[in-house]
Write the C-alpha cells for this entry.
Amino acid sequence: MIRFQGVKKIEWDYYSLFLIPVFFISFFLYIYIEIKPELYYQYQEPVFFLDSKFFQEFLGYPGGLTDYIGAFLSQLYYYPWAGALVGTLLAWLIYLSAKALIKSVTYFKKIHAAYLIPAVLLLALYNNYNYRLSTVAGLIISLAIFNLFSRTVSINLFLRLFLYLCFSAILYFIVGAQFFLFAVLCIIFEIFKKRNYATCIFYAIVSAAIPYIAVNYFFIYSLRDAYSGSFAFNDLYKPWIVQYIFYLYFPFLMISLVLYERLIAAKLKTRLQKIFLPKYKLKYIVEIAIIFGGGGLLLYSSFDGYIRMFLRVNYYADQNDWLNVLNNVSPEDMNDRIMAFQFNRALYHVGELSEKMFVYPQPAGSESLILTFEIGSYLPMLRSDIFFELGNLNEAQHWACEALALNGNTANNLKRLALISILKSEDEVALKCLNLLDKTLLFRGWSEYYRKLIDNKSLISRDAGLQRIKSLMPKSDFIILSGSPEDYFKSLLLQNKSNKMAYEYLMAYYLLNCKLSKFINYLNQFPNFGYLNIPRHYEEAILAYIAGKGTQKFHLNYHPHTETINDFLAFKKILSKYGGNKSAARQNIMREFAGSYWAYFLYK
Amino acid sequence: MGKPKKIIVFLSIVLVLALLVILLIPEGNPVIKKYKFIDRSAHIFPDYTEIVIPPNIAPLNFMIKERGVRYSVKIASAKGEPIEISSDDSKIIIPIDRWKELVSQNRGGKLQVEIYLEDINGIWYKFKNITNQIAYEKIDQYLAYRLINPAYNLWRKLGIYQRNLENYDESPILLNRATNESCMNCHSFRSNDPNYMLVHLRKGPASGTLISTPGNLLKVNTSTAFNQAGAYPAWHPNGKLIAMSVNKLSLFYHSIGEPRDVLDHGSDLILYSVESNMVTTCPGISDPGRMETFPAWSPDGKYLYFSSAPKLESFFAMKDSVEELLYNNIRYDLMRIRYFPENGTWGKLDTVLSSSETGLSLTEPRVSPDGHYLLFTASDYGNFPIYLKSSDIYMLDLKTGKYYKPGVNSDKTDSFHSWSSNSHWFVFSSKRIDSYFTRFFFSYVDKDGKAYKPFLLPQEDPEFYSTFLYAYNVPELIKGPVTVSPQELIKTAYDPGRFLQAQLDPKVLPHETKDSLRHGLKPYLQ
C-alpha cells in the first residue's frame, strides 16, 4: 500500500510537472506568436489613467470594478511579452479555480483535462480580438467567491443565507451580471451537496432580485444591462457557441461530476480502481489528446487570419512602418476598402503612389483614397489619419473627436488631438491631452517631449513630422466638402499650392475614375512638386489620353520614356491582335500589363 | 519579560506614538513677519479676481500660478473669522463650512484675498490683495446641463447632470448608458422650477420627449404630419404649453479655425399642449418663407420671443470651379408674437431687433424673470452661435428698447445663457479658456442692468478643467434639485403605457414632406 502510494505520487508529480508547464508555456507562446498582444492593443485601445477621478467612473455601475481591472491589465498588451504573460496568468487562475471547484464538490482528483478545458476555451476566446480581459477577470472573481463560499457549508444555515446575501450583493457590484455564475454554482452546490431545496429557492430569489433592486434604487442602468451587461456576449466569436460554453462549462462540470460520483462511481468503486489505477498512462494520453488535440482543433476553427492581417496592416500604418504595410497587403486584400486605403497611403509615403498604384488591383476605386463617412463612423481614426497627413487639421480634428466620442480618451486619440492643437496653436487643448497622457502608464515620455514644444515653439521647426504637416496646412478657410473628394482635393490645392499629397491624391482620384481630361488639366501643376521624372502611371495615362483623343492637345515639358512608349505600343498590339475586343484580349493583357494603368483603364 | 526589556518596549511605543503625532498633526499656518510686496495681483486660475459672487456659492478653490515653494492665503471680510490656508503646492482648497459662514455673514460686502508665497531662498512675498464683491442676492441653488465629448456626428457616452452650486455635488439626471446610448438634450424647465422638466431623447427604443410635471411623467412623440420632433423647448409660465422649434439643421465643416458650423434650411416653431397632447402653430411662427427658431416666453406668458431669418432659395453657388456653400449671409432677427393663453390665439408679430440694424445674427433670446431684460447672442451669421468665435452675449432693455454688449464677453465664443429666478444672475457657456471646450460662467446683474465680470463654475479640485475633455452644454439654472429620479425617467422612456403620440391641431395643414424641405441640398449636408 505504502509502495503503491509512493509510485502514485511520483507519477503525479512527474505528470503535473510536465503537463501543466508545457500547457501554459504553449499558451503563452500561442498568444505571443499567433495572436500577438500588440494587435489586441491596436484593436481595443484600452483607456487607463492613474487617477482617482478615473477610478470613480467605474464605481457608478455594476461590474465597473472588473472593467477597471480589465482596463488596467489591457494596458500591458502594449508590450507583447507582458500582454501574453497577463493572458497566460489569467488562464492559470482559471485553471486553479476549476481545480478548486472540482475539489469543493467531489472526491475526484487529478482530472487535469477538466481543469485545463476552461483555459483552452479561454484561448479560443482570446483568438477574437474583441475579447475583454474584464470578462475573464469577472469570471475568475465569481469562481473565487464561490470557492470561498463553498467552505461555509458546515456553518449555521441562517448565517450562510446571510453570507450568501452579502456575497451576492458585493459580487454583483464588482462583476455585474457575471455574478449569476456564482449564483448558479451555489444553487447546484446546495441541491447536490446539502439537498436543501428551500435554500436554493432563497438563493434564486435573492439572485433575481439583486439586479432589479440595484437598477431601481442604486444605479443608473437599463434593466437589460443589469441582467446581462457584463457578459459582453456578441456574434463576433468563432465558433459563437464558445463564449456560452465557457460559462456553462462550470455548472455542467459540477453537475456531471457530482452525478457521476453519486450514481456510478460509488457503485463501481472497487471496479473503477481496478480499471483506472493501473491505466494511468492511458488516462494521461487521453487527457493530453483532449487538451492539445481538441484544443488545437478549437483554436484552428476559432482563429481568423484575415482579421489578424487587417489589424497587423493597421498596426504598421499606425507605426508609420509603410514597407511592412505594403508587405502585408496581398492583391486579394484590395477588395477590402480599408486595406486598399492603407496600401495606397503606404505607397504615397514611400513615394510610389504614382509609380505602383496599379500594380495591385484597385476594385475599391476612389473610395480607397478617402474612406467613406460610413467607414469613418466605426473607424474614425482612419479618416483622421488621412486628413492629418493631407494637412487638413480641422477634418483630422473632426474625426479625432468622433473617435474620442466613440472610444473615449485612448492614447491615440489624445496624441492626435494634442498634435493638432499644437499645430493650430491651441495650446490649452494640447495641454489637456498631455495632462491626461501624463496619467497613463505608457505615454509620459511622449507627453514630456511635446510639452517642451509648447513651451518652446521654435522646437516645432526641428520636428520633421510636425513641420511637414504645418507646410501643408490651408492658408485660408474653405468649406470642406469631403463627400466630394475631387472638390476637396482641389480646395486643398487651391489653398496651398505646395500640398503634394493633395496633388497626388487628386491625380489618383482622376486616374481611378478614368477622368483623363481632368487629369491632363492638372498636369500643368506637376512641375511644382519637384519630381525628378514623370511617374510611370502618369506617363501611361498621358499615352492613354493621347491615344483616346488621337492628338496631343496639351503642352508638357516632360516626354514619356521610350520604354513606356514601347510598352504602350506592345499593349496596343495585343489589343489590335484581338481586333480591339478587350474581353478576348484580357488574359493576354493581364499577363503582360497587369500592373499598368492601361489594364486598369480597360478593365475597371 | 525582564524590567529593562519592558522599559525598552515602553520607550519604543512612546517614540513611535510621538513620531505619529508629529507626522499626523497638520502643520500650522506660517507666521509671516517679513515679506516683500509685489505690486500686482497674483496670477490665479480660475480667474477669481474682481468678481461679484453669490452669497451661496461653493468655495472658489483656485491655483496660484506663481512659482514658489510654499503658499499662504488669507480670505477675510468685515465680519467673521478670516480663513487662513497654507499649502506646499499651489492648490488652494478652501474649507467649505468656514467659507459658507464667512460669505453668508458678509452679504453685500467685500471679500479680500491675500496671497503670500515663499521662494526657494525662504523669502516671503505678498501680492496685491484681490478684492471680490459678495452680492446680496443668491443664485438658484442648482444648475442642470449636459456633458458630452465635443459633438460632431457620433456619440457614445453622454448624460444630463445637475450640480448643487452651494457645494460640489454633481448627480446625473439621466445617463444614456441606460437608454441604449441615445442622444439626449433639450432639457428645459418652467421658470427655473425643477418640478416641470422636459428632456428629449433621440434614437433607439427610448427616443421621445420626457415631460415631467408635478405628479405626472410621460413620454411624448411630438412629431406629427406637420413637424418632426421638437427641440429648443420653452415652457410657457403656466406650465401647460411648451413652445419648440422643429429644425432642419446640417453640420458642415471649415478648414481653419473652429471646424464645425451649422446650416439651417427650414426651421419652424410649434406649440405643444401638455394638457391636450396637441401640436399647433400659426403662420407667424412657421412662415414657409422664413426659418424660425429659439423660442422663449416672456415671464407673463403674453409674448413668445424667437429668432427668424429669411429662407434662401439656393444654398450653393460656384466659385473658382468649386461649389460653394452660402452660409455666411444668413442672419436672424429677434421677433416676438403676442399670444393669448386664455383662448390659445395669436396676435401681432413684431420685430424686436433686426439683423439689418445690428449687422449681426441674433439668436437665443431669454427674458429675465422680472421681464426687464432680454439676453441674446449675436454673431456674424447663422443660427448656431456655440460654434462661432464671433458669438457674444448682448442685453436688451425691454423697457427702453436699447441693446448693449455687457462686459462679460471674451474674444472667444460666448453664448447660451440662462437666468436665475431672481433676475440677478445668469449663467452662460464660453470657450474663453481654451477656445474649444465650453465651460460655464456666472455673471451678476445689478438693478441698472449692468452685468459684472463673470466667474467660472467652481470645482473642488481647481485643476479639474486641465484634464476634462467633456463640453458643458445648455446650462439651466433651477431653484432646487430635479425631483424625478433617473430610474423613473428610464422606466418611463421604455414604458409603452406612458407613451403618447402627439396629435396635430386639425386647423394646421400637414407640412411638405421632409424630402421636399431638403430640396437643393447636397447629400453630404443631409
